[in-house]
Amino acid sequence: MKxxxxxxxxxxxxxxxHPLPERDQCRLLHLDSQGHYEDLHFPDVTHLLRRGDLLVLxxxxxxxxxxxxxxxxxxxxxxxxxxxxxxxxxxxxxVRPGRxxxxxxxxxFLDGKITADIEDLLPEGCRKARFHYNGIWEERLAEAGxxxxxxxxxxxxxxxxQYQTVYAANNGSAAAPTAGLHFTRTxxxxxxxxxxxxxxxxxHVGLGTFRPVKEENIEDHPMHSEYFEVSAKAATQLNxxxxxxxxxxxxxxxxxxxxLETIVPAQGEVKACSGWTDIFIYPGYQFKAVDALITxxxxxxxxxxxxxxALSRKDWILAAYQHAIEERYRFFSFGDAMFIEKSDKGGxxx
Length: 350
Hints:
Layout: E1 27-31, E2 37-41, H1 45-48, E3 54-58, E4 60-62, E5 66-71, E6 77-87, E7 90-96, E8 106-109, E9 114-121, E10 127-133, H2 137-144, E11 145-146, E12 170-173, H3 185-193, E13 197-203, H4 207-210, E14 226-230, H5 232-243, E15 249-252, H6 254-263, E16 273-277, E17 292-296, H7 303-311, H8 314-326, E18 337-341
């Protein structure tokens, strides 16, 4: 399957540069299991979800992972983006400019309150960096770091909490699980009152979700691993839903979708667990857990547009995206949302 099959033309002005004043006031495009779509608004999710549905939410919290500092021997400005903790104070980071930050380089942040030694080269242009600081790491990072917004967003946030879900709890992501940004506490309470069960899991969003697909043959694309945790309570909730014929599992975001398809076995029960996933879902994949997905609109030729094409159908997704463009929906992280039901006609076909 070719990368170019997942391309669509997006007018740049449709890339949302800021969140809406009210989280749940975005538009919602519903794509059903037969390929039909309708224009709604996000609060209409209360009509799409029904009693007994298990709504799975990713409670990861975004770190202030973008660090701006200087190379200590030359005072050249440098940037590090924390991707994941390796061990202790060792982190996998993206760096800029890469040619200046080879093993042996030292960088300084916050007037020397934090320093980092570049220790090794890692795949895909990343580095291993060892950080040095006094006090508590989270406090130093909160002082020195800023929110790592995607490169297509050119405006600064007035409030960093706008890039966190209202249920964010476990610090560790380099990016937000953006489908969850649309939920308010009031909306979640309303869903619980109507009989929708909420289930919280954790997947720390890293480079794997957003890395561009460079290979034309998508099967050759290597996915970056991301860390996840599933509690005993979440495992119990998932098993109950999986064993009931009349209950659906609804993933909020592609991160949840990837996590669920990683942990749900073909046979047997879900167990409380933690680990790493590099699952890559594209058309032809047979879903074991997810019946529907709440998600944003994704970049052309990205692994995420491939994932939603596997859940629905590629031709249906591209038709729905074209409709969204014609109707002037807002795209990507701060944009509008979709509610996608798993295709009854097989996502493998198209």
